[in-house]
From TrEMBL:
The keyword Hydrolase applies. InterPro entries: AB_hydrolase_fold (IPR029058), MES/HNL (IPR045889). It comes from Sesamum alatum. The keyword Hydrolase applies. This is Salicylic acid-binding protein 2.
Amino acid sequence: MCFFFFNGKYLERTPPEEWLDTKFLPYGSAEENLTSMLFGPNFISSKLYNLCSPQDVALVNMLLRPSSLLLPDLSNKSPFSEEGFGSLKRVYIVCPEDKAIPVDFQRWLVGTIGVDQVKEIEDADHMAMLSKPQELCQCLLEIISQYYA
């Protein structure tokens, strides 16, 4: 349910002009009222992969496919239970150079959903696995050793 909550709030708080050349298109039957999202090249290079290599950005643009917003799918699911998901330690990794999910929204999310620890990867963009892979790996290893070793 966290993703549904996040996605809904994020869409509410993001003005249309922030989506740049992203396309939102209907799909499925008229009764379903489903919407797909396709990131545009400008959104990809300036918001999602802003600190990644030009080669990574080119590859993303070649492999890009439309995606569901998932809101209708997730709205029909029951919330996570405290016995299951709620029993796990939660760590949020802040990526300060993320232009798709601004730091103020990341910090609001941390305060809203509740986490056990906040870590930060300096100079990481939305795709930390590409912009700061070594730092992300180190951060994940620290989390695993602290909570799950």
